[in-house]
Specification:
- The structure is a homodimer.
- Chain A is built from ten helices and no strands.
- Chain A is mostly helical.
- Chain A folds into two domains: 55 residues, Arc Repressor Mutant, subunit A, CATH 1.10.10; 154 residues, Tetracycline Repressor, domain 2 (Orthogonal Bundle), CATH 1.10.357.
- In chain A, helix 1 crosses helix 2, helix 1 crosses helix 4 and helix 5 crosses helix 7.
- At the A-B interface, helix 6, helix 7, helix 8 and helix 9 of A face helix 6, helix 7, helix 8 and helix 9 of B.
């Protein structure tokens, strides 16, 4: 990335630092409200360096979305998976991560992607594409959990659709918690989601389509 | 509102027109991205008139949020209630209204409040307060439906919590549909919500806590 001319200061550190600082500011205050001067100050970098790596603000936005995509698994998913084994608890563990973020930052930050999704849905197709790819990543992680927990759920509940629903609930819950500034808004919604999953599990075990023997077999698959 | 000095042009039409135009622009492109010049042009109004009614952009934002609050029942709820009688279908009818909006505007617009909620959650307390009041309005309409349908739902499902969940799902579903630009994103989420309500209804009727006779009684409590 820095072969055409020599990079203005200690690359690749500078580039990475700009991305991290910008991602953080976009998360906290939105894309439109974040000015170049703010990014320069927070990254402690010269204007020339910023323009060297990112000729436009949109280039920087795209880089932050790529970076979010790359960081999702190691930062959001892996710590939860290291801590929990049960696939459904892993899913709720991911949701719990957003709860913690809301609390730690006192509702200043929510989901980095959801935050930008509504603001930028009219942006260029590449931006929307990267927002969607980030959502896809999220859904795939949860879909994996749901596939593992498939034997606990009714046969008709498709993991992909369910993962989409879980993301839907998370994004809506973060939005409401940030607006009302109470964690109860988040908890109430996740409680309902848990109730839904409890009912799905009851349906699968009590009067679901699969015979008990088959259920027991699949219970050991994970 | 116009007693201190004489209003610059045909008030109250001008004031109302500014509010409607601004509400529309904030919905389509966000608050930050909407410039004063754009509002002047769309409302076909002079700069002096705008400043007369709304000394700051935030004053105008607050007015649009008050206006949204006022318009919610007649524009969003009443047409659905006029068309449908069943309380749960009324609730899904309200959700259907957002589906239509997404389709008609080709995903350019979603929920006017959700759209601003994430962008403005760091704004002044009055803005957040009005966003929350709009959400409250929404939840109250749905809560009313759920109270009416109480006899169909398990005793433990509290209408207020459920209404909060329904709003959560709607907001998340609009966000995803706008990002992916497919109505399937909205439909998938609402289908899961319907599945949840179907399961709640089964629980209340098939093996719920209430005996049948008691259920019938509570059907008249509303």
């Amino acid at each position: 990335m820095s072969e055409k001319t020599s990079p203005p200061e200690n690359a690749p550190d500078a580039r990475e630092r700009i991305i991290e600082v910008a991602a953080d500011l976009f998360l906290k205050q939105g894309y439109g409200a974040t000015g170049i001067a703010q990014i320069l100050e927070a990254a402690d970098i010269l204007r020339g360096s910023l323009y060297y790596y990112f000729p436009t603000k949109e280039d920087l936005l795209l880089a932050t979305l790529e970076w979010r995509k790359k960081m999702f698994w190691p930062e959001v998913v892996q710590p939860v998976f290291d801590r929990l084994d049960d696939p459904l608890e892993r899913m709720f563990g991911i949701l719990d991560g957003y709860r913690n973020l809301l609390l730690v930052c006192e509702f200043q930050m929510g989901c980095p992607i959801g935050n930008l999704a509504l603001e930028l849905s009219e942006s260029n197709p590449r931006v929307r594409q990267l927002l969607a790819e980030n959502f896809d990543n999220w859904k795939n992680a949860v879909k994996g959990c749901l596939e593992e927990a498939r034997h606990k759920l009714p046969e008709e509940s498709r993991p992909g659709d369910m993962a989409h629903f879980v993301l839907t609930v998370m994004e809506g819950a973060v939005m409401l918690a940030r607006t009302y500034r109470t964690i109860e808004c988040y908890d109430q919604a996740i409680d309902r989601l848990r109730d839904y999953f409890d009912r799905l599990q009851s349906a699968a075990t009590e009067w679901g389509g699969k015979p008990a023997s088959k259920r027991h077999q699949s219970a050991h698959k994970k």
